[in-house]
Write a structure and sequence with these properties.
Oligomer: single chain
Order of helices and strands: HEEEEEEEEE
Strand content: 35-45%
Shape: elongated
Structural class: mainly beta
Distance between the termini: 66 Å
Length: 123
């Protein structure tokens, strides 16, 4: 058995472009940080997103002085910025002090759904 043909095939496969999926590059407020009150959450991805299949929810996971506070989904409106890579969730009022989790899901041209989440605090 010759190993050279197998190595040549492996090299060709390695040289093919990988099927890329959108990656979360940056977020505001950033993950694991404490931020000032804001009425927007922005998520910047590595690829243009398909608006019909991309979105995010912000969940309040803790409120100062309320130890028994359960997770509460906040009414925000998610949409894409003009660049097609930034997912923005806007709220009628700035988020109050507390801890939050952002649950996001996105689809790009490769049609694969990618999802994730991260947490931050408002102080």
């Amino acid at each position: 058995m010759r190993i050279a043909p197998l190595l040549a095939i492996a090299a060709l496969i390695a040289a093919l472009p990988a099927s890329a999926h959108p990656r979360l590059l940056a977020a505001t407020p950033a993950a694991n940080t404490a931020a000032a009150p804001t009425a927007r959450v922005q998520l910047v991805f590595s690829e243009r997103l398909v608006p019909q299949f991309s979105g995010a929810e912000v969940v309040m996971t803790g409120m100062p002085g309320m130890k028994m506070h359960g997770p509460t989904r906040l009414p925000g409106k998610a949409g894409l910025a003009e660049n097609g890579k930034t997912l923005v969730v806007t709220f009628a009022k700035p988020l109050p002090k507390g801890s939050y989790r952002v649950d996001w899901h996105v689809v790009s041209a490769d049609t694969h759904r990618v999802q994730g989440n991260y947490s931050f605090e408002i102080r």
